[in-house]
């Protein structure tokens, strides 16, 4: 990524330059936060952030589980990696997949007891890590930033 300003000619305005700076800073923050969490999950659990993401969605889904397609569309992992990710997690005893009783073409993913135990431990650490990472930002600043980020997300529908 470029940190220098690009010459976009006469069409470039201070507003467009600020928008580009905003995008670049959001992108860099996202990548840095993702890397930090991935490093911590790897160091503490020999695991990855995408595995935590799967477990978090399955925990929220509860006993009814989630269809593979709904889970895939909800994850932060790339679509191409989801099947392999679920295969490995199933091999590790963290989840199981069963055909839907309503539609045999649909697989439902359920978290196992082992997966639930692991998720609860990981979630407690994840919460502590985020508290640590954002400790220098006041509660009011966090609320303001959350509101702004929600506005940005809402522009995409």
Please provide a brief summary of the model.
With 157 residues, the protein is mainly alpha-helical. It has helices at 14-45, 49-61, 68-74, 79-91, 113-133, 139-154; strands at 66-67, 95-99, 107-111.
Explain what the structure shows.
This protein is mostly helical. The protein has a domain of 81 residues: Arc Repressor Mutant, subunit A (Orthogonal Bundle), CATH 1.10.10.10. The protein is 65% helix and 8% strand. The protein is built from 6 helices and 3 strands. The protein has a 3-stranded antiparallel sheet with strand order 1-3-2. Strand 2 and strand 3 form a beta hairpin. Helix 2 crosses helix 5. The longest helix has 32 residues. It starts with 13 loop residues before the first helix and ends with a helix. The relative contact order is 0.10.
Which SSEs are present, and which pair or pack?
Layout: H1 14-45, H2 49-61, E1 66-67, H3 68-74, H4 79-91, E2 95-99, E3 107-111, H5 113-133, H6 139-154
Antiparallel strand pairs: 1-3, 2-3
CATH topology of the domain at 48-128: Arc Repressor Mutant, subunit A
Helix content: 55-70%
The end-to-end span amounts to 27 Å
**Class by helix and strand content?**
mainly alpha
Which strand order spans the largest sheet, edge to edge or round the barrel?
A: 1-3-2
Provide mean pLDDT, rounded: 90
The value of Rg in angstroms is: 20 Å
Fourth-level CATH superfamily of the domain at 48-128: Winged helix-like DNA-binding domain superfamily/Winged helix DNA-binding domain
């Amino acid at each position: 990524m470029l940190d220098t300003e690009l010459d976009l000619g006469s069409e470039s305005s201070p507003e467009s330059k600020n928008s580009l700076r905003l995008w670049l800073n959001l992108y860099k923050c996202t990548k840095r936060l993702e890397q930090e969490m991935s490093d911590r999950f790897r160091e503490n659990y020999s695991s990855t952030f995408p595995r935590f993401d799967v477990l978090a969605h399955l925990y929220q889904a509860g006993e009814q589980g989630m269809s593979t397609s709904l889970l895939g569309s909800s994850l932060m992992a790339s679509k191409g990696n989801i099947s392999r990710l679920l295969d490995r997690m199933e091999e590790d005893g963290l989840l199981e997949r069963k055909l839907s009783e309503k539609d045999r073409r649909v697989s439902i993913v359920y978290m196992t007891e082992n997966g639930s135990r692991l998720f609860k431990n990981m979630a407690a650490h994840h919460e502590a890590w985020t508290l640590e990472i954002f400790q220098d930002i006041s509660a009011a600043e966090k609320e303001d930033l959350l509101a702004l980020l929600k506005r940005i997300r809402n522009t995409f529908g």
